[in-house]
Amino acid sequence: MTVTIQVPEPLDAEQTPSRRRVVLWTVFVTVVILTALAFFAVGRLTVAAQQVADDGADAGFARDMQAHHAQAVEMALAVRDTSANEEIRAIAYDIATTQQHQSGQMFAWLQEWGLPQAGTEPPMTWMSAGTGEHGTAHQSQPAATPEERMEGMATPEQLQALRSASGADADRLFADLMIRHHQGGVAMATAALNLAQTARVRDFAAGLVEAQNAEILALQDLRARL
């Protein structure tokens, strides 16, 4: 597979610091996307024909991370359409496009495995096969919503606050929510890396941990300057 990368124009002294950061962020995200695609391709080539359990970590991760990504995309699109901050808009666009693509990959996995997109178990139950911390805590709350069960998910009230905010307040709230959201995503991907049975899911989870940890650092740096 041949991948052509369009390299941004060299930075010059006349470009503003904000513009330079946006260009560097674009280069960073391009590398992250290509790395994720590479992990995905390796997983497709190395995964052997095997039965994936409906209640196992592979299927549970694919379902729950789709829901987790969907909220990240929702938050990113909300702020991208309203923010006047060039860096926030660039970050939001990259999060939305990258996570929509990854959700499509996980949707396709479930189809290939012959499994439904919705499982019979509550969200995050698959993580109880690890330390037991998540599954045990959530089994006592069978009526909990996905937002309450999944780490890093914003509450409906927080989402409404983000939609209603504007200017620098919206930028700061988006950065705060997305940092926490990514931290939850890293926790889920780390569990999948340890529990998944297929090389495809383990490789994808490893790439996700690396990419989202890097994005957390970038968001924290940006948040400090807002």
Automatic annotation (TrEMBL):
InterPro entries: DUF305_CopM-like, Ferritin-like. It comes from the Bacteria. Residues 58-222 form the DUF305 domain. The chain crosses the membrane at residues 22-42. Keywords: Membrane, Transmembrane, Transmembrane helix. Signal peptide: none annotated. It holds the Pfam family DUF305. PANTHER family: SLL0788 PROTEIN (PTHR36933:SF1). This is Uncharacterized protein (DUF305 family).
